[in-house]
Design brief:
elongated; single chain; mainly alpha
Length: 131
């Protein structure tokens, strides 16, 4: 948890520094935001590693197909990256690009989930066929 508190302090420091830079150097403020976002993302990945290991263990215990959990993890990653990119675009003053990247992320997530939806549909058909 110490790493979390350091990251939170770094983010708050970047906000204050960004406010002072934003008045004169908007470009530097955006670069600072992007750098801090990358730092926090790396810390988040550090905290998510045990979660991923647990998910892989659950996959083995439940005899789940490997592709399904991989698709789920990709969808979560794409959602987080799209959200982060959208926020950076909004901070840079281009909210239309921010909204477009978020829409693209949602579309890609839906595309990735088609195999899951197909398996769910097959399962429903099996259940209804048994009735």
């Amino acid at each position: 948890m110490e790493l979390f508190w350091k990251a939170a302090g770094g983010v708050l420091l970047a906000v204050v520094l960004g406010l002072t830079l934003g008045k004169q150097e908007k470009d530097l403020e955006v670069l600072l935001t992007m750098a801090v976002c990358c730092m926090v993302t790396m810390i988040a990945i550090y905290y998510l590693e045990p979660v991923l290991e647990f998910m892989w263990e659950l996959e083995e215990l439940g005899d789940l197909q490997g592709d399904l959990l991989g698709i789920l993890m990709k969808a979560v990653g794409i959602g987080l990256v799209a959200e982060l990119a959208g926020m950076i675009c909004n901070d840079a003053g281009n909210s239309s690009l921010g909204k477009v990247i978020q829409m693209l992320g949602s579309s890609v997530i839906l595309f990735l989930c088609v195999p899951i939806f197909s398996q769910l549909l097959n399962l429903i058909r099996e259940i209804l066929g048994e009735l």
